[in-house]
From TrEMBL:
Molecular-function GO term, any one: N-acetylmuramoyl-L-alanine amidase activity
UniProt keyword Ribonucleoprotein present: no
InterPro entries in alphabetical order: Amidase/PGRP_sf (IPR036505), Amidase_domain (IPR002502)
Annotated ranges, domain N-acetylmuramoyl-L-alanine amidase: 27-188
Keywords on record: Hydrolase
The protein, known as: N-acetylmuramoyl-L-alanine amidase
EC number: 3.5.1.28
Enzyme class name: hydrolase
Organism this protein belongs to: Streptomyces narbonensis
Pfam annotation, one family: Amidase_2
Superkingdom of origin: Bacteria
Length: 369
């Protein structure tokens, strides 16, 4: 169930789907709304015009025939694949049909075909389809022999897909008139080119692609979603395992030895510089021996330019836990490092005795500036 698209949105949706749209003069106000409801809409219905090859069916579908006033559909799909809009609103195209079919279309619950319609021999049908279906009349003699040009069938697929896409329906919301009323045979043609299951398969396939899709081409995959509004986040994972003595009150820069997950060119291999030109947040794990549980440490990050230290980060006090003679301490730091700077980390032993930094591990997320 859906509210019908506005006339403007109908045109936009068709054009987005690559349909060659021709707006027949007066189509936007040509309707049968004074005779009954228009909407809610549940689907799209395809018809054939039963007109000779040489006849332009557009004027007839706009105005109607002697006993059936127009519009006779919303769009006429000509043999050349152009789609001529002739009505907006209630149109005389669907007529009476089977409520079970309507329910199957609303639910989009059926296999190849909706249940066969049952209300026989030209009776009015139990349900009026005119409020509920968009309709396309397709130029064809309707005798089962007259061939359907490929460009016309493609336009039928595209016009139907455009409405399904815009009304948020699947291909099972598209039926033929013959599936609605048991005395109808349209659309009918040779070689199954306009069989409704076949058309629905093509429409369903089309709906898996963007509206601009050209059959036979591959659709480029959309880029993978990125964090931080499309900016890639990098992961840096560095360790060192060589012991380093920490004398009292003597800051020591941490040099890194092994990289696990960092991106190329994100840190100075074997050095202490780890990053340039990024916002960053780091978890720094430090492993010590000789450090008492109550003894204090401080950790900070250092921003260095070619001219020397540009900025020392705020001191982070560290505490932690003792495990098998070594003490692990974990500290989280964050900052922004400019393109002209490099980032490194420094640890200072604030105790009275020398302790040993047994190793360190840095796990850092960064987002390029
Ligand atoms: Zn029909």
């Amino acid at each position: 169930m859906a509210t019908p698209l506005t006339a403007d949105r109908l045109v936009t949706a068709l054009r987005a789907e690559g349909v060659k749209v021709v707006e027949h003069p007066g189509w936007r106000t040509n309707n049968r709304n004074h005779k009954g409801a228009w909407g809610p809409v549940h689907g799209v219905m395809l018809h054939h015009t039963v007109t000779p090859k040489t006849m332009n069916a557009v004027p007839m579908c706009f105005s109607g025939t002697g006993d059936l006033p127009g519009p006779l559909c919303h769009g006429v799909i000509r043999r050349d694949g152009s789609v001529h809009l002739v009505g907006y609103g209630r149109a005389n195209h669907a007529g009476g049909g089977d409520p079970n079919v309507l329910q199957a279309v609303i639910d989009e619950r059926y296999n190849d075909r909706p249940p066969a319609p049952h209300q026989h021999n030209g009776s009015a049908g139990a349900v009026d389809g005119n409020p509920h279906f968009w309709g396309f009349e397709c130029e064809n003699e309707g005798n089962g022999v007259d061939p359907w040009p490929a460009v016309q069938v493609e336009a039928m697929v595209r016009a139907s897909a455009a409405l399904c896409r815009a009304q948020k329906w699947g291909a099972k919301s598209v039926i033929g008139h013959l599936e609605w009323s048991d005395w109808k045979s349209d659309p009918k043609g040779p070689d199954n080119v306009v069989s409704m299951p076949g058309l629905r398969t093509r429409i369903a396939d089309r709906l898996t692609h963007p509206a601009s899709w050209t059959p036979g081409t591959t659709t480029p995959k959309p880029p993978a979603p990125q964090p931080s509004g499309g900016t890639r986040m990098n992961l840096t994972h560095l360790t060192r395992t060589t012991s380093t003595p920490l004398l009292p009150d003597s800051p020591v820069r941490i040099y890194w030895e092994t990289e696990y997950a960092d991106e190329p060119n994100q840190h100075g291999a074997g050095g202490h510089s780890v990053l340039q030109n990024a916002d960053w947040t780091a978890n720094l794990h430090l492993f010590f021996s000789g450090l008492g549980p109550d003894e204090a440490l401080q950790v900070r990050h250092i921003e260095t330019t070619s001219g020397g230290v540009a900025e020392e980060g705020p001191l982070a006090n560290v505490d932690g836990f003792k495990d098998k003679g070594s003490v692990t301490r974990v500290v989280t730091l964050t900052g922004r490092i400019q393109p002209t700077e490099t980032l490194s980390f420094e640890v200072t032993n604030l105790g009275a005795a020398t302790v040993t930094l047994l190793g360190a591990r840095l796990m850092m997320h960064s987002t390029p500036l």
